[in-house]
Description:
The complex is a heterodimer of chains A (166) and B (502).
Chain A: H1 3-6, E1 10-14, H2 18-30, E2 34-38, H3 41-50, E3 55-59, H4 67-77, E4 82-87, H5 91-97, E5 105-108, H6 113-144, H7 149-164
Parallel strand pairs in A: 1-2, 1-3, 3-4, 4-5
Helix pairs in contact in A: 3-4, 6-7
Chain B: E1 6-11, H1 15-26, E2 33-39, H2 46-54, E3 58-60, H3 64-67, E4 74-77, H4 82-91, E5 97-99, H5 101-148, E6 152-156, E7 162-165, H6 167-173, H7 177-180, H8 192-205, E8 207-216, E9 222-231, E10 242-248, H9 250-299, H10 306-337, E11 345-346, H11 349-359, H12 361-366, E12 370-375, E13 383-384, H13 386-406, E14 413-421, E15 424-431, H14 461-472, E16 475-481, E17 485-492
Parallel strand pairs in B: 1-2, 1-4, 2-3, 4-5, 12-14
Antiparallel strand pairs in B: 6-7, 6-10, 8-9, 9-10, 11-13, 14-15, 15-17, 16-17
Helix pairs in contact in B: 1-2, 9-10, 11-13, 13-14
Amino acid sequence: MDKSTTKPTRLLLVDDEEDLVTYLGQRLQKRGMVVHGVTNGPDAIKAARAEVFDVAIVDLQMPKMNGIEVMQQLSALQPFLEAIMLTGHGSHESAWEAGKLHAFRYLIKPYDFDALLQMIGEAHAARNDALRRTFQDKFNELIARNASAREIMTESERLRREYEQD
Amino acid sequence: MNKTRTRVAIIGGGRGCHELLTMVQADPLRLGIEVLGVADPDPDSPGLQYARELGVPLIVDDYHEFFVRSDIEVVIELTGINEVRDEIFRNLPPHIHIVDHYAASFFWDLFARVEENRQLQEQSARELERKDAQLNVTKRTLHEVLTNCRDIIFLADASGNLVTVNTGAERALGFACNELIGKPARSLAAQPEVFDELWQATVADGHATQYEVEFLHSNGQHIIANVGMSLTGSSGDKQSEVIGICRDITTRLRLQQEVFRSEQLAAIGKMAAGVAHEINNPLAVIDTISGVLDDHLTEQRGNLKPDVYDTMTAAITRLRLQVKRAVSITHSLLGFVRKSQAGPERVDLATLTDETLNLLAPEINKAGVTVHCNYADELPQPLADPQLIQQVLVNLMKNGLDAIEENDSRDGVLTIGLAPTGAGVTISIEDNGVGIPKEDHGRIFDLFHTSKPAGKGTGLGLAIVQDIAKRIGATVRMASIPGQWTRFTIYLPPQPPDGTVA
């Protein structure tokens, strides 16, 4: 409703297919997103240490580090980061069976671009919801503790920084 | 032989007397001897005792009593004592003759020899009888083997006409014995010239074999048999009869072909899936790049001449369409080896069929096709994997829609039926589309066989249907009249039979 529609989505794009990263990045940038593209897991982790992302698009099958692993490490760094997995047909079924994909949104390659856009929008909105809920919970805790107005002011400012990471 | 019996008295009741009495009793030589008396001073001598048992009338201790009797014709002296014999000789009345112990032993040996011969003869007669019985058993066994043998066995004369056929031939070919006898053996074969060649080789070499010869069944179908022929006489003998033994291998061949086909399918499927998987990545890139071009084109619309813009837009649209087509092919190839996520469960087929129709609703509406559903009220719920069944339904319904689209001479109708069959269910999917040409009926389930226009069919749909049916133990049948309709019926058993992986 609010920030997700006005603030550009900060996107981390991870795929070992360089052309895909380049051109999908171009298309997404044209639609107002801020895209950081990398072609392997370690580079993705490096990027997540340096900047904050709203959504990560991660290829499931990559040589150095597979998508699931990448996503687990990214989540450890940025708990509110939402992921979209790109999988090959068939491989998503084995991943699903192994219970690895349940936690993520996923699209089967070759994906439909409009479906991808829609999914990015949903992922971003989900992230904002989760952030807002957590912020509200902590804020309510402060009120419940009967904190002073001054304390509430400074604490809420701290929380805002912590959760929005701006 | 049966003249008046010689009346005899025996002197000496020893073992010799006992044996003579035994022999006279049995009388194998039919001597016609009647023993009137036995004499011995020892009342306990074995001969005397036996004579008493037999009821010989004159049992005495002194043989002189015999001499006064007029009915005794011969006395046989068996004492073995020369003095006794001499004494008898001296006192014997003229009407009685004597056989002394010496003469008796001579005859004795003679009789023994005759008896031995007789026994030998008897034995060999018994032997002969036994052999005869054995021969009969062998003959009967041989006959049983020949008649009950599943192979086709025939005997043909030198001119090639059937003399005898076994019941195996009746069974395998569907003709009665008497329909076959007298006919040329070559008329059994679907291609008589193949038989002729075999025949010539048999006459020349004494025997010949040929694999996979087609025979004609009375019902018009062909059966395939391995044939061996041999000459009853020596090779080159043109007057000799020919024996033929033919083994029906139709079923075995069919099974072999099925195994071959499923192995082929598995191998192709595996390879195709691997290739499809690899191709999906470049396809994704191509699709993305064509999207980038489209983006640029839209941006630059104002700076481009309208015809340039239109040409390029059309080109990009075609490009993306072709990518979609490639994707649909790779996806169906991957569907081939796709493992199911869900296991078998009780399937409510009416609900599943409705869901599937919903899934295809956009295509059904676009094609303007009317769907009729004839579901039986009470349907068993077979144990199967619903995803696999849905895949079968989707593929068959899509085929029906395509067939309707190709036949624009009338309004399209798709009729779906669900009916209980035993504990299982029969699903039928019928369309009033173009139908399937007769010559294609045997190939519709073949991998990559398609009758659809270029770009429409992948030749995978029905192969996948067949593949799934095999996995869940279902049977799929097709009936069609070209230009009129096509109907697929799937029989789903109550549960997958052992050995199938649902």
